Amino acid sequence: MKKTLILSLAVISSLAFGQKKFVYGDAFEFNSKYEKDIKLVLCDDYNQYVFSDINEDGYSSYPHKKILMRKLDQNGNLIDTYTKDYANKTNGVLHNYLGSIEVSKDQFVIYTEEIETKINRKEIFQHVFNRKDGNFTTTSVGKLFTEGGMKQGTTFLRFSENGKYVAIVNDRSVSKKTANTIDNIVIDLSTLSKKWDKEITLDTEYFESDAAVTNSGRILILRKSTGWKESSKLVYVSAQGEQDIALKEKLILKTLTPVSINDQDYLVSFGYFTGVRINQSNFGDMAFINLQNGNITMSEVSDFRSNTNMSGVDIPLVQVVDGKAFLYGFNVNKTLPPSTPSNRFPHPIYSYGPGKWFTVKSDGTASTTSTEKRGDIGFFTKDKINYFFTDSYGFTPYKVGSDFTDKSKFVEFQNRYTSTDAKYGQPILTSVKYIPQSDRVIFLRKVGDNKLLTQSLYGWQN
User: Fewer Cβ atoms within 10 A, N terminus or C terminus of the chain?
Assistant: First the structure.
């Protein structure tokens, strides 16, 4: 208590005199082997919570299906841990963690599924953590089906870019003898209740490769041909039914990024055209699709096209200003190391290209601007300026769509040292949070193999 009071007084003093002040929480243990999807959530100037999920089958000292919420005090010190074991102990029941999101200043929601092939059951559960009482409330939001046996189907869970909706798409396992049945559920995250659900039936000449949900709460399903001839289909689903969006001849879509401009739904998708393709990636063409009238405008991304190591495109940030859409993204590259006698099947190595702004004009044409920094980032936005955390040294400010704002406004965020203890560690980029009440930036660092600590900065623009 005395230590916390001293740190709090030091923080108040630094704010009063406009000084840059680093504050570190005490390191706490976590299991880096099993705990995944680590996030810093429900942050205010009094408490923060560290979320993680254990979703492992096998033997360990940890329950293999477990949600953890660690409560931190004002200075980032661990004061409590709340857990939820979501494993149904019935023999033959499988479980999967599907995703999670912060829905209010007090609530964080987690989605999991249970699959019981013996009775062809698939069920989706919603676990709501409330910081006011530290309790989890679990409800079933979808009782679905599988074909049984090894045919468990595929579950897609996707959040809308504006954080208002979550979509659950259950693709029942395809049988060539019967039509392909797909269950679609959209949940309104403001009420945590079902907005609509719709069962649709599609042909078996295609299978479902991806899904997304728009800011208006409609679902997009990307389909890929099952035969030898390459082909894509795009299905737009609402409570009223489904419709095919006609694509350009020979166009293959690989990604789905819904965008809203003036309350209308659009889609940005990277892909390619079939035909003679020599030393080209599958992501060199960008389609901007008007989902109301089906109009498609194509733009070439030349450095994506020439990168044959590309395995995907990540778009973590979408902003719309004055009728223009700005998407920040980067290429994901996959290389396979050569096999060795001791490692005949090596795991692929993933790397990330430089960040890019894709600016889409009102006519659908797009231009590209490089940020000249590594692509995978943590970020927050303040006063219409985006602050990108691209490494362990600081935040680089960017205006929407720009390559660089002002080098003099680079915010240094280096490792710092106290007189008795070195503060170091690898930052977890996705954990960066901005707390406006105290103009504070906070994020997690991984220390060694099994510890985390928080690092905060007050007076960071001074």
Answer: N
